[in-house]
Amino acid sequence: MFSLFKKVPEESTGSTEETSIESDSNNNTLKLFSKILPSGNEIILSEPLSENVNYIRNQLSSFYDINKLKYEEKVSQTIENFDYLKRYTNEIILNDEYEKNNMIYTSLASTFGVYCTSRILCNKNNWRSNSLAPKSFVSRIFTNLPARIILPVLFPVITFKTLTPNTFNNICKSLEQNIFNPEFTKQYHDSWDEILRKTSNFSISFNEKMYGHMELAVCRARLYIIDKLSSDEDD
Hints:
The protein is of the alpha+beta class. Among the domains are: 5-50, no CATH class; 94-188, no CATH class. Helices cover 70% and strands 9% of the residues. The protein contains six helices and six strands. It has helices at 47-93, 97-121, 137-143, 145-163, 165-178, 182-234; strands spanning 5-7, 18-21, 24-25, 28-29, 32-36, 41-46. The chain is rod-shaped, with a radius of gyration of 44 Å. This is MICOS complex subunit. Residues 1-23 are annotated as: Disordered. It comes from Henningerozyma blattae (strain ATCC 34711 / CBS 6284 / DSM 70876 / NBRC 10599 / NRRL Y-10934 / UCD 77-7).
């Protein structure tokens, strides 16, 4: 049996002599060979084991290099995306200097406050202390299902649009151009234009009718006053 490390005689120190040693066990060749290191130690190596170790080492090294390269690429891509988002936000979204420097933080804080207030208003548990007490009309308005879905979104949007209108419009345009489907955007604009047109027509028709009724009422009032004055003079 061979030992892994064996001190060789002084006269052989410094040589790198290799001696091949083969051992058969159950018809398996170990392919052992001894090697003398410059330090004077003799080691016994196995060729299959050395090949397997070198193969595993090369695989691990290759795996490390590949994953390191992927990681560096992802980090670089993330930094580029962040820089692009920052430039896009400053140049496209926050292109109004007054809103950017004076109103944006106030608008965001107010929007968040309105959102929290809307959630409180739409919570059923905040409207009555006694579960057996009847619901009021106002509580029914704020706690019904459509209101609980729409109001916490509608009120903050109105607040943000009121305080920073240009930034709000830029966000809407960016969503329409980059996220929403163009067909959906077109249908949305067509539907909204149709609603505005019908509302405008109704408002015009209502104003015309009210103006006509007011003219008729004023005319009748004048005629009544004239008749009244005429009858008083005759008396």
